[in-house]
Amino acid sequence: MTRIVAGSAGGRRLKVPPKGTRPTSERVREALFSSLESLMDLDGVRVLDLYAGSGALGFEALSRGAGHATFVEADKRAAEVLKANARELPFRDVVIANRSAEAYSVSEGEAFDVVFADPPYAVTDGELEKVLSGLVNAARLTAGAVLIVERASRSAEPAWPEGVESLRAKRYGDTAVYWGQVRSDG
């Protein structure tokens, strides 16, 4: 069972796709959001949840005050689960894009303050680098935007695109969370 940890929808359960995803554990989400909330005020921020799966990260952000979340999920069954979760929750400013993270990252559109990227472990470092670079090159990030990437703990830190600096890395068992931030000087 996956549930929202805290905020206005704390304790609400989320449906999870039957296979092909691994939702971020409650322990990791709790630690991640504690760190994120010490770094920035989530009130009204625009969130992008790439490789969204059940949407646990984006829905957690909305529960804690984010104003908007866009969920990007390539798998059709997982996108249907995301839509079902969105219908069950009280959040209204939600967009679900059933397309690849790479295609979404290079398309024109709104800019985001927080980006979560929790790709399947099979996604290569090179593929992830293209997605992160696409977000920068397509101007999809605000000045000071925070990028949070979840990978297997045996993975190397992502190659952050130019203009994004590494903030921190933290391991939680077999999961590693890497933080980057768009430099405000350019």
TrEMBL record:
Gene Ontology molecular function: methyltransferase activity; nucleic acid binding
Keyword set, alphabetical order: Methyltransferase, Transferase
Annotated coiled-coil segments of the chain: none
UniProt GO BP: rRNA methylation
Pfam families assigned to the protein according to its UniProt record, in alphabetical order: Cons_hypoth95 (PF03602)
Region of interest (Disordered), residue spans: 1-23
InterPro entries for the chain: DNA_methylase_N6_adenine_CS, RNA_MeTrfase_RsmD, SAM-dependent_MTases_sf
PANTHER family with a match to the protein in the record: METHYLTRANSFERASE
Protein name per the record: Methyltransferase
Protein's organism: Lentzea aerocolonigenes (Lechevalieria aerocolonigenes)
